[in-house]
Amino acid sequence: MRHFHYVLTLEIPGVGLVTANDVITVDPGTTRSTVYDFVVEQAVTRMMARAPSGRTYAPPITHFWSLNAEEL
């Protein structure tokens, strides 16, 4: 298992802008895109929980994405 630190700034027009950061543990062989998709899904789920229902929103826009090994 490897530990990575990520920072994601994401905007959903009409909902808001959020920056998330955390350490994630992944299995060897996990791709960067798999981690990105997981992190975006988590952020969008949290954002949409606060959004007014019954509306259609544009897809999320990534303003910033960083994923680096946690160990220095």
Task: List key phrases describing it.
72 residues, alpha+beta, 3-stranded antiparallel beta sheet, 1 helix, 43% strand
How many domains? The number is 1
Mean pLDDT: 96
Percent range of helical residues:
25-40%
Distance between the termini: 16 Å
- Sketch the topology as an H/E string, one letter per element: EEHE
Task: Give a description of the structure.
The protein has 72 residues and is of the alpha+beta class. The chain has one domain (2-20, 29-69). 25% of the residues lie in helices and 43% in strands. The protein has one helix spanning 32-49, and strands at residues 2-12, 16-26, 61-69. The chain has a 3-stranded antiparallel β-sheet with strand order 2-1-3, covered by helices on one side.
Brief rundown of the structure:
With 72 residues, the chain is an alpha+beta fold. It has one helix spanning 32-49; strands spanning 2-12, 16-26, 61-69.
Question: Secondary-structure blueprint of this entry?
Answer:
Blueprint: E1 2-12, E2 16-26, H1 32-49, E3 61-69
Antiparallel strand pairs: 1-2, 1-3
